[in-house]
Automatic annotation (TrEMBL):
Alphabetical list of Pfam families matching this protein: Death_Lrrd1 (PF24978), LRR_1 (PF00560), LRR_8 (PF13855)
Segments forming domain LRRD1 death: 192-279
Lineage: Eukaryota, Metazoa, Chordata, Craniata, Vertebrata
Gene source species: Molossus molossus
Annotated InterPro entries: DD_LRRD1, DEATH-like_dom_sf, Leu-rich_rpt, Leu-rich_rpt_typical-subtyp, LRR_dom_sf, LRR_domain-containing
Keywords: Leucine-rich repeat, Repeat
Protein name: Leucine-rich repeat and death domain-containing protein 1
Gene Ontology cellular component terms for the protein in this record: cytoplasm
Taxonomy, superkingdom: Eukaryota
């Protein structure tokens, strides 16, 4: 069987472990379908036709024995009644940015994929109670994961997690994970402030101009007029604070990485040596 036979009055449809390669367009006629199991089949890509099933509450497209899917369409967000989604045992690399539109989602099984990050909208899944992301490529969890207040059953096993480290996640307690991430954010914020001070106290006037170019920082006429009355370190500190405020959608870690790349590009090696020493010191401290 390389296609799926359907009837208009179908509410529950299961066709797992077949050789199905495509979904017929007639599936759009299933106005009342609630459960669909098409796991372990031979889809070349995620059947986009499924995204028109706005009554669907449960979808299982895991591929234990079938052809592995590598991506999910953004149109997945059209399935607004979806409560249970199983995409496990595929080769999916990323969760769609629009995942947060699935406001009814209660259960998400996405284990044994290649997912390396969670999009910001993921934190809008307020009804999510069960989440299994084990066996993926996650290195960090979003700080705002504590906002998923309904989440009770979590599994992040077998991920190369650094933030938080895997030992924090083994207990599968959201509160513990959230506390770690909050402390990590506070630490990263303090480290960024110290890096700003290192730059402000050590950069030359010429390198400051180059740094502003690399960070797309515009030097205003006001800045130019105060050049003779305000010290270089003060002007640098003010510029970096303004850059941080303008980049409020970026984390402290992302800002730090962007700043250190810019410093390397302009050849501020003495400053980079001091920042490296700071990083080594903070890494040596017990978190």
């Amino acid at each position: 069987m390389d296609t799926l036979g359907i009837h208009d009055d179908t509410a529950i449809l299961s066709s797992e472990k077949n050789q199905i390669q495509k979904i017929p367009s007639e599936i759009c006629n299933l106005k009342g379908i609630q459960k669909l199991n098409i796991s372990s089949n031979q889809f070349i890509y995620f059947p986009i036709e499924l995204c028109q099933l706005q009554s669907l509450e449960e979808l299982n497209i895991s591929q234990t024995n079938g052809r592995k899917l590598t991506r999910l369409p953004q149109e997945l967000s059209n399935m607004t009644q979806l409560k249970g989604l199983d995409i496990s045992n595929n080769a999916i690399r990323e969760i769609p940015r629009s995942i947060g539109e699935l406001r009814s989602l209660v259960s998400l099984n996405a284990y044994n994929n290649q997912i390396n990050s969670l999009p910001p909208s993921f934190l809008s899944l307020n009804k999510l109670q069960q989440l299994n992301l084990s066996g993926n490529n996650l290195t960090a969890l979003p700080t705002g994961i504590h906002n998923l207040s309904s989440l009770k059953d979590i599994n992040f096993d077998d991920n190369p997690l650094l933030r938080p480290p895997m030992e924090i996640c083994k207990g599968k307690q959201l509160y513990t994970i959230a506390c770690y991430l909050q402390r990590a954010d506070e630490r990263d914020e303090k480290i960024l402030e110290k890096i700003f001070k290192i730059v402000a106290n050590n950069i030359t006037e010429a390198n400051f101009q180059f740094l502003c170019q690399k960070l797309n920082l515009v030097i205003s006429e006001t800045d130019m007029s105060t050049k003779s009355t305000v010290s270089l370190s003060e002007r640098v500190q003010q510029a970096l604070d303004r850059w941080k405020m303008d980049s409020n959608n970026l984390s402290s870690t992302a800002l730090r990485d962007q700043l250190t790349r810019a410093l390397t590009m302009i050849g501020a090696y003495e400053i980079m040596d001091k920042i490296t020493a700071l990083k080594l010191f903070t890494c040596a401290l017990k978190f």
